[in-house]
Amino acid sequence: xxxxxxxxxxxxxxxxxxxxxxxxxxxxxxxxxxxxxxxxxxxxxxxxxxxxxxxxxxxxxxxxxxxxxxxxxxxxxxxxxxxxxxxxxxxxxxxxxxxxxxxxxxxxxxxxxxxxxxxxxxxxxxxxxxxxxxxxxxxxxxxxxxxxxxxxxxxxxxxxxxxxxxxxx
Amino acid sequence: xxxxxxxxxxxxxxxxxxxxxxxxxxxxxxxxxxxxxxxxxxxxxxxxxxxxxxxxxxxxxxxxxxxxxxxxxxxxxxxxxxxxxxxxxxxxxxxxxxxxxxxxxxxxxxxxxxxxxxxxxxxxxxxxxxxxxxxxxxxxxxxxxxxxxxxxxxxxxxxxxxxxxxxxxxxxxxxxxxxxxxxxxxxxxxxxxxxxxxxxxxxxxxxxxxxxxxxxxxxxxxxxxxxxxxxxxxxxxxxxxxxxxxxxxxxxx
Lengths: 169, 253
Description:
The complex is a heterodimer of chains A (about 170) and B (about 250). Chain A is mainly alpha-helical. Chain A has a domain at about 30-95 and about 105-150. Chain A is built from 5 helices and no strands. Chain A has helices spanning about 1-20, 35-45, 45-55, 60-95, 100-160. By secondary structure, chain B is an all-alpha fold. Chain B has one domain (about 1-215). In chain B, helix 1 runs parallel beside helix 9, helix 7 (about 130-150) packs antiparallel against helix 8 and helix 8 (about 160-185) packs antiparallel against helix 9. Chain B is globular and about 80 Å long. At the A-B interface, helix 1, helix 2, helix 4 and helix 5 of A face helix 5, helix 7, helix 8 and helix 10 of B.
């Protein structure tokens, strides 16, 4: 049964590759430019959120959050487009290079995969808890990380330091 | 069923004849000698098998599997010719191709050695059907590696080589699936096999005939400056890391 699955999977993989193999579009390589960080700072401005919350109009508040979520995701997508363009340019440039190293290519592909993983996690977080909630979670995870790092440094320092009361020699 | 088989057989031979004629007229036979050699072999073997079918069933059966085995060997040559023709102007992708093609070969070799360690050699000897199925699976693995490289490095294909690749991939995909099902289900699958296999073959011949009707040159990549690969790759990795940090920083701010 496993053997049959291998053969059918190979056959399906071939047909799928044929279906998804499309001619390269040169327009994808046109630089769109990175969106300014200040735009995201403006989207997530706490004073805007405070002002809208102060109005005590739930419908307006919901609209505001929906709009800010949409804008935040658009900003994130623009960054993803830039990463994709960079990756496409790399692959285009190395096609004709003689000294390509498979290991280096795997590293480049992994760095892109890592970016996409981060992107998916952050977009998921923004969709789930909204851009303000996502920001709060990321700040919290930062402070948690910093606390863990301090703790591990302290533990390392105490383990490395000579214990008091040991008899020398 | 017999009428269907005969119709497909004659239609296949007719299209093969047209394909060979067009190959000679358009001088494509010089550009793809292994492929046209394969097409000529298939046409001759088809007529040879017709002659054998008039003799005993056993003689035909032996002849059929011998013809199929040689056809698989030709298939390896055709796959190599497609690979060579597509990646002519891309030395970097060729290098990656050698690496990715070596991987499935290595996996199959390791599997063979592991199985040999456990069982006596006689148990490993497959039937003719299994042997053809396994060889076709090897070809499928090679084609998967080639198609993945084309998709990853976004390589443009000319009409001729695209029809060669697409047609052959379709043929191998259907052959691997039908041979595996024939081997697993036995005689119950025979009527389906008798229909699916010739039909897939006929569709493949149609694709080849349409795509190889006239000669079209393969699009060559624009000559680019030789770059420092190591530096370029490090810059890409650093760029990705900066963009990654930017994502989190943007939402955190």
